[in-house]
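EI: anyone free to look at a 341-residue chain?
SC: sure, send it
EI:
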Amino acid sequence: MRRLARLTLLIWSLATVAVTGWVLSQNPFAAPLVDRGLDQARAALMRAVADRATPDWLITRLTAALDAGDRQQVQMLMDLARDQGTPLPPDLRARADAALAVGMLDTLSDCGTCMRDVTACPSLSLVAACTLPFELSPAGDAAALIRQGGTWATGGDPDGIEAALATLGLAATASTLITAGSSLSIKGAATTLRVARRADALSPGMTRALSAAARSPAPAQALSGIAGDLRTIGRQASVPELLPILRLADDPDDLRRLARLSEAAGPDTTRVLTVLGKSDSLRLMRRLADAAMAAAALIALVLGQMAALLGAGIQMALRRGLRPNPARRMPPPLRSVAFGG
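SC: here you go
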């Protein structure tokens, strides 16, 4: 029975090691365990994008973007076609090139419009690129407070959330030296959310969460999680893409999932979301994360079994060392010899 138990334990340990190796080789989100990092997760996302973005898919989407005059979408689709080596009809390519060439001058004009009035800006990417540099300064917060004060003075209904965020931004700026710069993340988040609210780039769930955070006793602490996720998206994707991605978040938990996606997709975050859609992108990330958890559990099981085997081996060695050796015989006792007279 002991031999059968030991053989069963050995077979189970070897099988577990084999399954763990297979899981690690098939699931890139477990790559940190083998020093491959998020690059493999990004590769999985790029494979999914390549499978979805067929020539027919690209031609249909590019035509629609040109008809809608969406230059940012046209640029993204042209970059995708170039990176994948997808052939485009000559007339469609010429039309896209002409739209992008003219678009450079139009972008400068649109940027001026965005700086004057965020609500008149033709795209959220331009809102972030053109208005955030000014809004991040103390002058942007002061202008927001003056705007809401003027609304209140004329008998209108001021936006209390924007006023609260502007006040928080000024307070975070003032405390920069005291906090050694750590308050700048809160300042950036407050400004981004304030601009997103004016540009109608917040979902109802994000608006409710923002309202609760702005009116809480410690708004900076309440916004810390959102601030970290916004900083991650802005660093991994880009600042112009921050507001379009923020618009997709249904609530802070959804924003956290989008931030994790941006850590894997990096500069291609918008491309992944455009081609796969938010639901499929996050579903793929969830499958990868579940596979990573399974891999970690298997590795923990293997380590536990190795520790158990090692402990059993040490115990057996100690028992053998302390067990009396039957080969070693004690010398016979001396017999007394009687001497007679």
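EI: The two ends are 66 Å apart (CA to CA).
SC: 👍
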